[in-house]
Amino acid sequence: MISIVSTTNRINSNSLKVATKCQEILFAKGIESELFSLENLPADFIFSCSYGVKTDEYETLTRKYIENPKKFVFVIPEYNGSFPGVLKAFVDSLDFLKLSGKKAALIGLSSGHAGGLRALDHFTEILHHLKIEVYSDKPKLSGIEKLIDDTQLIDDKSIERLKKMLGNFIEF
Amino acid sequence: MISIVSTTNRINSNSLKVATKCQEILFAKGIESELFSLENLPADFIFSCSYGVKTDEYETLTRKYIENPKKFVFVIPEYNGSFPGVLKAFVDSLDFLKLSGKKAALIGLSSGHAGGLRALDHFTEILHHLKIEVYSDKPKLSGIEKLIDDTQLIDDKSIERLKKMLGNFIEF
Amino acid sequence: MISIVSTTNRINSNSLKVATKCQEILFAKGIESELFSLENLPADFIFSCSYGVKTDEYETLTRKYIENPKKFVFVIPEYNGSFPGVLKAFVDSLDFLKLSGKKAALIGLSSGHAGGLRALDHFTEILHHLKIEVYSDKPKLSGIEKLIDDTQLIDDKSIERLKKMLGNFIEF
Amino acid sequence: MISIVSTTNRINSNSLKVATKCQEILFAKGIESELFSLENLPADFIFSCSYGVKTDEYETLTRKYIENPKKFVFVIPEYNGSFPGVLKAFVDSLDFLKLSGKKAALIGLSSGHAGGLRALDHFTEILHHLKIEVYSDKPKLSGIEKLIDDTQLIDDKSIERLKKMLGNFIEF
């Protein structure tokens, strides 16, 4: 079971489209996955579910999408030169002791030319700090607006790139 | 006018104690400052005041503490190997075009031994991306629990360190 | 007096072409500069001129290009996902106490799409460690092979980008 | 077969003492290893063996210590806020196509308090760029002078830390 996380709370995000494509690719390879979009976090979670305090509903959510899965695919858009703040706020709300030893793949996207390179670097360091293994091959989709349409990722080269990485990540 | 930002929303945080000391130090040097703690953000700001949408109250707040000041002091605790997610979420809610050319000093704190080094590195890269100049001298207060009491920063060496940096930052 | 450093020892490097263009741009603005290419370092400097030991010739070289100037322009190509090793080896051979308070502008170049973003991030952190101020605006020339010919930088947009940054850096 | 690399060319380095201890620990666990110190690189390798040109002797050296092993332990001291330049210069002299898929453990050391944290971050990003997997647990030995004597690493806590990591790395 792999958990795919779309790491922004922006509505109708490009990240969610890429995450959905990842789920399709994994499904075609016979791998079950869950997809979690950070737009489904409680609106006030930074204040209501952080620093040791959590609602039961929040516990259920984090158990399903974070604590139970052994592997993650994080789809990370570049916001202001790094990952979305909401992603790190979400990490800050988790029980880090339950994360050690899991494995993660990272996919970056950006409007600009670097494909979220720095967002991936920063988040890799955070995951390593939490003792989560990070797969070295991190696709970077730059100029993302040209790779998607209203509903999905349509660029063939990008889709092949994701297929290759996800196929290898299954074995990681 | 310098804006001092305590970059966590944790209640009674060490960061706020350090930020308060910075305000005292600046006051003693004849420099006026405002202190803003991220605990005073609207609880749902990530969902209600991001990606181009803002309430009037939020506009007033960001104008006072972020858009009007020319200089910032960011007090940044290390959470999970980087800055608090709430800080980046706050940055993501701002109008980045209004930030260019401002100047920032960074102070790190951590329970561990590195004093928030990586949090400062990550945030420096974000500020540079926003074309905010970052002063090179960034005090790192490691083992922060031993440097504070219930209400304030009490460690003399740390206070001297902050005095030296802030004195130079005024001229930066 | 500004020192422009081409930070690779590769012969006939793209970096040297970009560095030469920077010197022309500064000259047109009435600013004198020296250009130093790391290809002119002694071939065995890592072993003969590091860790406190230096030849007289090396002292003369580092005094002229590093210790005397107050400002630097570093032209940095991406090698293996970061700056060239020879650049950091050169930094390791310097007397860091003589560097504090200087100011640097950084220009990145790469064959790939990120324009040396990570090389610039890494080197910024090293310069900040040495208490050298780093200008926030760091041009990134990606796809460098298409921007140069056999002898010089020819891409108009890139040249305008450098002119804008260098014009502002003079005032930094 | 694991290759342990002491990543400085400084004579009688602390890194070499830590690397030697790693070899002892692996030996006690029944794991064969080779130890390579960068002080044994040709003094002019940056100029004579980089950018596609190599001597036969250099080919033999890199085949033995880098291309043949499947796993590496890099012992990395902090110099000027990052890894030693000679390490990156060594990486720049390698054929990166022969590195993909290998696995690396990183150990940092520093005189200061951060234990080479940033050196490890920077080098992790370079290894990931080369598609080398990096183990998330990276021991950081700060205040290294107090942990060693004239000939070896003597601090019990540090030795236990290395034993734990290396024991797990064997299974990585």
Keywords:
homotetramer, 172 residues, alpha/beta, Rossmann fold, six-stranded parallel sheet, globular
Class from secondary-structure proportions of chain A: alpha/beta
Nearest-integer average pLDDT of chain A: 96
Q: Give the oligomeric state.
A: homotetramer
Number of structural domains of chain A: 1
CATH architecture descriptor text of chain A? 3-Layer(aba) Sandwich
| Parts with pLDDT < 50 across at least 5 consecutive residues of chain A | none
CATH superfamily of chain A: Flavodoxin domain
Portion in beta strands of chain A: 15-25%
Termini gap of chain A: 14 Å
Largest interface: A-B, 31 and 31 residues
Please tally the β strands of chain A and state the result.
Answer: 6
Number of helices of chain A: 6
In helices, the fraction of residues of chain A equals 25-40%
Largest sheet of chain A: 6 strands, parallel
Question: CATH topology of chain A, anyone?
Answer: Rossmann fold
Shape of chain A: globular
The CATH class of chain A is identified as Alpha Beta
In short:
4 copies of one chain form a homotetramer. With 172 residues, chain A is α/β, with parallel strands linked by helices.
Detail the topology: elements first, then pairings.
4 copies of one chain form a homotetramer.
Chain A: E1 2-6, H1 14-28, E2 33-37, H2 45-48, H3 56-67, E3 71-77, H4 85-92, E4 103-110, H5 117-129, E5 133-134, E6 140-142, H6 156-171
Parallel strand pairs in A: 1-2, 1-3, 3-4, 4-5, 4-6
Helix pairs in contact in A: 1-6
